[in-house]
Amino acid sequence: MFREAIRNFARTEIVPLVDESEKNETFPAQLFPRMGELGYMCISYPVEYGGAGMGKLDECIEWEEISQVSTGINSCLMIQSGLSTSAIMDHGNEVLKQKYLVPAIKGERIAAFALTEPNAGSDVAGIETTARKEGDKYIINGSKLYTTNGTICDFLLIPAYTDKSRGHRGITLFLLDKDTPGLSRNKVHKFCYRASDTGEFTFDNCAVPEENLIGEENRGFYYLMESLDVGRVTHAASRVGAAQAAFDAALDYAQQRIQFGRPIAKFQVNAFKLARMALEIESARWMTYHAAWLHDQGKPCTKEAAMAKLLSSEVYQHVAVEAMQLYGGAAVYEDAVVNRHYRDSYLGKITEGTSEIQELIIARQIGIRDVM
Q1: Strand-pair partners of 297
Q2: Cβ atoms within 10 Å, residue 118
Q3: CA–CA separation, 112 and 83 (whole Å)
Q4: Which of 27, 77, 259, 316 lies most in the core, judged by the most C-beta atoms within 10 Å?
């Protein structure tokens, strides 16, 4: 029932917005309050804060369905329900929850999560943004890149060093309002995910009140790892949904396109190609569902989450490439749906931990220590 409800919402209310969002490189921000009104934001959060009290598997179904319509639009919605708010839910004080989390769940305030920097991506401990304690405030200096919801957010979470001498044990997580003096932001233009909003930030002596600290000082790295670990599962679900959409488009086209007197799907080389695509998507889907189920059962899922993220990202790219081949010349038109999948599919292997980082996590989880 939930899948059907989300699918109907995506088909009726998001589909009409996709083409314009892609063309203008703008995210339709009206979706936030609309999804909040329907109870579709942050569905895994407790009912007392406005969530639906659902599980990770339910989240996977949601993002899988919406990504079939647009991975770009889905990314902005998914970050609101995950990385940009999960640390507040799990470690924020009650004041922050009422002031920021509850409105975010209602879709009344937009959240962002700013981690990546010019010299820090996969190496989270390599961030250079600092937070210096002065009385009852922290003074933040530094910059962040590639931030989803960056130019439309009302607040953002950022990690910064409060004690550089301690390495990753000296990172603290902060919440900043968009109007904080000294904070500036700019829009980033991309060849993919054009319907998502992406920005970059500069922090010039931004004064943040002490109560905007998330959890404990110098515990930010561990909060980040928690969020990223769980986020890989929903990221995988998003890629599964997008791969399914690319496959559906390719299958439909191959059954209609006539060459040499028959649909091109009836040529063995193409039939086997489509069969392999269907196999890979289903494999990625069940790997993702398994990781989500483990999380919902309170069981360790670091390895499975990394496997799901790695597999689904690479399956999406492979399916997108094969779909382009099946479409032939019709695929080169920029407004062709498979062209968009071809562009969007590459980002999955980079964002929220590259494929190589997932391999590193898996290697460590199977007992290979000190691998770099």
Answers
A1: none
A2: 11
A3: 8
A4: 316
Chain position carrying tokens 């470690």 = 91
Instruction: State how far the Cα of 333 lies from the Cα of 368, in Å rounded to an integer.
Output: 46
pLDDT digits (tens, 9 = 90+) for 336-354: 899 999 999 999 999 989 9
Count CB neighbours of 260 within 10 A.
7
Q: What are phi and psi of 198, to 5 degrees?
A: -130, 135
The neighbouring-strand residues paired with 120 are 117
Residue type, 343: R
3-class SS of residue 303: helix
Per-residue pLDDT tens for 163-177? 999 999 999 999 999
Other C-beta atoms closer than 10 Å to the C-beta of 271 total: 14
pLDDT tens per residue across span 272-284: 999 999 999 999 9
Residue type, 145: L
Q: Angle at which helices 71-81 and 56-67 pack, to 10 degrees?
A: 160
CA-to-CA distance for 182 and 169, rounded, in angstroms? 27
In this structure, the number of other CB atoms found within 10 A of the CB of residue 205 comes to 11
Give the SS3 label for residue 83: coil
Which domains are assigned to the chain? 2-110 (1.10.540.10), 112-218 (2.40.110.10), 222-365 (1.20.140.10)
Distances in whole angstroms, Cα of residue 264 to Cα of each of 43, 148, 254, 276, 331: 42, 40, 5, 16, 15
SS3 267: coil
Catalytic position from the list 65, 117, 304, 352: 352
Q: Among 239, 234, 299, which residue's Cα sits nearest to residue 57?
A: 234
